[in-house]
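Try this one yourself first.
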C-alpha cells in the first residue's frame, strides 16, 4: 500500500467501497485515522469507523467518481451515486489514510435512500 500515490489509494478505496469490502477499506486507514464527515457528528477516530463500519455490509451504496485530484499528500474526490446524489471528500496520507473529510447532502440523501432502499446498485 505504501507505494500508491494519494489518487491511486483513493481509486483503490472507491473499488473496495463499491465491493463493500470492509476489511480492504480498514487496511487503507492508519490505526488512529480521523474521519470527519461534515454532515455527521462526531468526528470519528480509528480504522473501523466511518466507511469501514460493519453497517457498510448492509448498505447498497455505490460511489461513482466524477473527479479525482491530487495535490502533494492530498487526494480530493468528487462523487455521485446512481440516484444522482453528490458529495466530495479529501484525504491525506502517509502510507495509509490518516485524515479524511467528506461532505454529502444528508437531507437529500436520506430522502432518496428512503424512497429507493434497494435501488442503490450500479447503473445499467
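Now uncover the answer:
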Amino acid at each position: 500500500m505504501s507505494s500508491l500515490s494519494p489518487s491511486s489509494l483513493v481509486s483503490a478505496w472507491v473499488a473496495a467501497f463499491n465491493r463493500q469490502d470492509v476489511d480492504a477499506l480498514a487496511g487503507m486507514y492508519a490505526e488512529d485515522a480521523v474521519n470527519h464527515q461534515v454532515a455527521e457528528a462526531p468526528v470519528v477516530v480509528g480504522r473501523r469507523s466511518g466507511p469501514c463500519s460493519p453497517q457498510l455490509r448492509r448498505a447498497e451504496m455505490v460511489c461513482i467518481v466524477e473527479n479525482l485530484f491530487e495535490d502533494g499528500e492530498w487526494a480530493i474526490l468528487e462523487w455521485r451515486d446512481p440516484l444522482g446524489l453528490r458529495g466530495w471528500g479529501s484525504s491525506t496520507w502517509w502510507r495509509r489514510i490518516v485524515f479524511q473529510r467528506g461532505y454529502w447532502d444528508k437531507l437529500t440523501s436520506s430522502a432518496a435512500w428512503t424512497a429507493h432502499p434497494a435501488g442503490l446498485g450500479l447503473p445499467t
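Discussion: Residues 119-124 have pLDDT under 50 and may be disordered. The CA atoms of residues 8 and 75 lie 9 Å apart.
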